[in-house]
């Protein structure tokens, strides 16, 4: 937990809890929409970059337009070893050497060595654990591709962030419930990987979400247009249409 020094508290003026940097969708004309996922989490005085999109140029350009500097990042957390989440890693590591990087233990040895060459201090997770105060990893979850999600303990409730959700969005949600059993789930956001699911399967997943008390949902990236539309329909004004440039504050989750 104290492996990550608190280096700085700077952040953009509006101080959102989460800022979307890269996504398949965008909410602003000046930002590039590109296949991939990356967001900045501001939590308990630290800045955490969760995933890096598919392309370092898009990541760097969108960061510049959002007023986010690599030097502000205290921790990078990478969900899984797919190009559309790892594409901007070396842009960040080149700009900020010796950065703590939290990865699933199952990442390939070659990839881990490549990151260490840039001074990355790897935090390898296997089981669910607290990485920083109030920031947890789901652990290295098994699935078609192994993956970790991020879980935030906030005053609005638990916030769950997924890269692609290859182990299954419901498994990730249930893991978050186990990690913080006493908290309501305020938001589940990110890639839900449901583009190949039929409507009835998506509706079953939404029923699980509702039974688990998930208040807000924000399916983006690889969730699929159809799943996004069904989630939007079922969650109404508690669905957040994420895209690059989206900002989520605690007030959005009331
Ligand atoms: Fe992805
Ligand atoms: Fe993926």
Structural commentary:
This protein starts with 17 loop residues before the first strand and ends in a 6-residue tail after the last strand. The chain has one domain (18-253): Ribonuclease Z/Hydroxyacylglutathione hydrolase-like (Metallo-beta-lactamase, Chain A). It has helices at residues 56-66, 83-86, 89-95, 109-117, 169-179, 199-211, 225-235, and strands at residues 18-22, 38-43, 46-50, 75-77, 100-104, 121-125, 129-132, 135-137, 150-154, 157-162, 185-191, 216-220, 247-248. The chain contains seven helices and 13 strands. Helix content is 26%, strand content 24%. Helix 1 (56-66) packs across helix 3 and helix 6 packs across helix 7 (225-235). Strand 7 (129-132) and strand 8 form a beta hairpin. The protein has 254 residues and is of the alpha/beta class. One fe (ii) ion is lined by residues 37, 82, 84-85, 163-164, 191, 221-222.
List the helices and strands and how they pair.
Elements: E1 18-22, E2 38-43, E3 46-50, H1 56-66, E4 75-77, H2 83-86, H3 89-95, E5 100-104, H4 109-117, E6 121-125, E7 129-132, E8 135-137, E9 150-154, E10 157-162, H5 169-179, E11 185-191, H6 199-211, E12 216-220, H7 225-235, E13 247-248
Parallel strand pairs: 3-4, 4-5, 5-6, 10-11, 11-12
Antiparallel strand pairs: 1-2, 1-13, 2-3, 7-8, 8-9, 9-10
Bound molecules: fe (ii) ion (2 copies).
Task: Note the main attributes of this structure.
254 residues, alpha/beta, Metallo-beta-lactamase, Chain A, seven-stranded mixed beta sheet, six-stranded mixed beta sheet, binds fe (ii) ion
